[in-house]
Amino acid sequence: MSRPMLLVFLLLIVIITSQFEWRQQLVVDIDMTPSVTQKQQQISREEAVKEKIILSQEKNIQRLNELVQSLQQQLLQCKGNNKTKNGIVSHLN
Q1: What is the helix (H) or strand (E) element at residue 60, kind and residue range?
Q2: pTM assigned to the model
Q3: Which range is the signal sequence, renumbered to this chain (predicted)?
Q4: Smallest Cα–Cα separation from 50: which of 42, 61, 39, 38?
Q5: pLDDT per position in the chain (93 positions), as tens?
């Protein structure tokens, strides 16, 4: 009779310890769920900030391209004016 009692006792110990470990894993999983969600939210915020920075940089590049085109046109006009003035000066001499 003592042997079956010992087996029942050992079986109870195994069941109790396994449930305790199982509950610990659940608590860890539950605790990790908010941190995973927080990490995902942080990543999505970082992505939004990166996207805004990229859009801002694209706008700045577009403005710079427009300024370069304007300066190139002004340079061509100046070259044309210089050629005209040089042509008039050479005809006067």
Answers
A1: helix 2-92
A2: 0.48
A3: 1-19
A4: 42
A5: 588 888 888 888 887 777 666 555 555 555 556 666 778 888 889 999 999 999 999 999 999 999 999 999 999 998 888 777 666 656 555
